[in-house]
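Batch job 17 of 40 flagged for manual review because the log was empty.
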Amino acid sequence: MGTNVETFIETTQHVASAAVLKKLFLSAVAEEGYENAVFARANNRRLTSIPWSEFPAGYLETYRTENWDRIDPVVQRVHSARGPFKWSDTHPRSGFSREQKSFFEQCRELGVHSGITIPIHGLGQEVDLISLSQRVADRVPSHRITHVYMLSVQYWLKYCELADQRDHEICPLTAQELECLRWCKEGKTNWEIGEILNISEKTVEFHLSNGMRKLGAGNRITAVIMGIKRGLIPL
């Protein structure tokens, strides 16, 4: 079901064009049921740029004209979110404002429904985000969110590599850091990794934190994908 993450990483590894990379990514997320996609950049709770988008005709123009990013709960959420989230998760306890309800209603009328957003944090308040959505209302399959997240992170890493050709040096990872990341790739929890390696859960957390810091990754999924890309973790 859907594009295998490891196959996607392998296929995109040697892509030399951002256009080809985007085509492969859109094809992979379409298999997951997402017809709409956007790659955007945000700072201080506003969008600063939209490198590309795939939306029904008229949607993006309306979004920009109405300055919807100032009320869009997704844009407000990306700065604090540390992982992927469903748009439905942005509902505040006090409820959406009248303006926000109207915004969502118009989105649905324009063919933008049932989405998820993947935030990728940069320096300071800078956040890159990939949002995927459907053209008709449907439930977002929760069990596939991590899979889609990994596809999106690989797309982003490769896009950054193509947009900025410089090689970024990283500190070498220790054997323990690599071992913990390899087990992360297999979906093991910190406790399970500790049992396998015969070390405490806190020690696992320490090694993973160091590995993430050295790789410049904001979370373990990004660290695993970066490790695969650099040949540190086998496919």
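Reviewer: the log was empty due to a logging misconfiguration, but the result itself is present. The chain has a mean pLDDT of 88. Unflagging and moving on to job 18.
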